[in-house]
Write a structure and sequence with these properties.
Number of strands: 8
Order of helices and strands: EEHHHEEEHEHEE
Strand order of the largest sheet: 1-2-3-4-5-6-8-7
Structural class: alpha+beta
Largest sheet: 8 strands, mixed
Shape: globular
Helix content: 10-25%
Length: 172
Amino acid sequence: MNVDGNGMVKLKVYEQGDFPALLQYVLPAEQAIYTSMPADAVKVCRDGEDNLAVLITEDEMPAGFFILDYGTEANVYTGNEEAVIFNSFSIDQRYQGRKIAVQAMTLLPGFVKQMIPQKNEILLTVHHTNIPARNLYEKCGFKDNGIKFAGESGEELVFHRPLKEPESEKLV
């Protein structure tokens, strides 16, 4: 299942045949400290489990990757059992600088609503020193509500994005 962006960038559920492309994925060391390599991350996604590996494509070529974890036991950040966790996000170095991350994050809410309709919120964690990622998430509608925790490599911030519009923003 694909959700189209503005003609070039799409979100696509990972399929086993996509694995060879993930082995070619390039991520600079200074970015790799904040995420997992897609070829490693996809190994945790098994059929029937509560997670979904997703490719970000540009012109049908793998340009990025993330995982949606929608199991209630994975959500240790809030009491909301209807939240999905967005993690292992990255853009292949060869595709950076093309605004693919912004396009993918713009497509994300619709993709989650389509693929996991029972969920009402997207959560993600970001290392406090990862300023480019924090700026991206804020630009794309995520909010830092002040929840922090000690991650493996230091302080992590929890960002939230509701999947339904607040009553005040609905069109009459």
